[in-house]
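Hey, sorry to bother you again with one of my protein questions. There's a protein on my desk that I can't quite get my head around. No rush at all, and the record is pasted right below.
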Amino acid sequence: MNSGALPEAPDSKGFAVAIYLVAFVTGAIVMSFEMLGSRYLAPAFGAGIYTWASLISTVLAALCAGYFLGGFVADRFPSPAILAATVAIGSIWMLLLPAFSDEVVQFFAFQIDDIKTGSLAAAMAIMLFPVTFLGMYSPFAIRLLIESKHNAGAVSGTVYGISTAGSILGTLVTTFVLIPLIGTRAITVSLGIAGLLGCALLLATAPRRRLGVVAALLASQLAMPPPARAEDLFDSQIRQTMLARKDGRIAHLETVYNDIFVTKEASLLSLSFQWKGWRFYQSQANLADGDDLPMPYSRTLSIAAIYPQDIRRVLVLGLGAGSIAVYLHRFVPDAAIDAVELDPGVIEVARKYFGLRETGNFRLIPGDARMFLNRHPEPYDIIIVDAFTGSYIPFHLMTKEFYQLLRSRLSPHGVAAFNFLSAKDVFESNVRTVAVAFDNAIDLFRSDEGNGESNAIVIARLDPSSDAETLQKAAAAQARYKFRFDVAKLVADQRMPLPKDLRGKVLTDDFAAADVLDARSRSYRREK
């Protein structure tokens, strides 16, 4: 480090070191808080690109305002006390945030229908204020450190370099270590405490020793607690046209959420998502046979139909190509089916290439699954959750709070069916979390997808059902609906025993390390 970066007065060297150290801390706090922002917003607005754009824009706007304001105030009041106060104000906000964040975010979620505007407003409400004050730190610190124009460049570069190093560490530690370890709210409180400790350090090392009393008052904040067959759902003409196409890639569409590919092999039309060459099949349709369900997991999901006494309303969260909705509609034609899909591009592909269309009993609804449930209290007899963004289930659709919300939207004898990947860590956490939300009233079914891959279907019930009763219900449902794939046989062949000891962690909106757990034990196939 250039020695010219430090004031030469002997009694101020310790203060200069403290300023650089706190620059590192504030840089870490800002980026850590930005990463946490997605955890605050996702339960209401989803974890898609609009949410991240809102968060990034808010942080940049706050830093922009902080840089201007910090420089302005520093030139007029170059006081260590005011520098410490800027850190203290932002830190105290973070200590208090967990006490009111949910109410603020939900307010904007319910008041603003547009997800882009709503997520931006919510991000501004919870993040703009503290990050602005933390953003004041660097220009203010530079003003206090500069002795003359000869060391201005070295001081500025050192402050911003150290702050940026803190930002890098804050991003990595928060994402890789803290979120899986202790949860969102605990991390937020820890950031507030770290900021107040930095504030106390500044005051304790400032040349004006009379600030020790102020430091004691600010440090005392550390003790503060945190607050009959109906109309088909597909256009047969479109499917006939697709059937006549040559095998291979049919279409490629890049959306804000996914990289979508449509491919054809013989009579099978497939929709897949791809990421860095890895291929994730989401849905398939047999163009020559409308009653077929080519993907084994979707057949297993149809087991959900055996539990309700009558199937009047069905909700499908995650559309894909619409295969599950089409299948249920063909065999339970009187049921009204709503399909909610986050990515408008997926809906476009399902319409254009798979011939999916709305009817009097079938609605296509663009939007986030959790937002839809929050805004629509009407009950459903069956809710199917098959929602993936790329290769992952969004974390806010795998928490206890989400499952409890979903349970509240079931009719008195309703069931929820979940498609989970069988990767050990995340699967055990998923099953345990569903079991907690549904008082252990769950059934597990295996689905072998081929190529060594497998899914697990979890059925969560409101009514008790023994193994024998479940088999009886399956036989009765098969006789009543005459499904193409015999649900009685599926139940008998694919039933899995419930684990005696679920070792996974209960996932919550505050502690949802699902995306980290899901990254373990994954197997992919690279597109050729």
Q: What stands out?
A: The two ends are 51 Å apart (CA to CA).
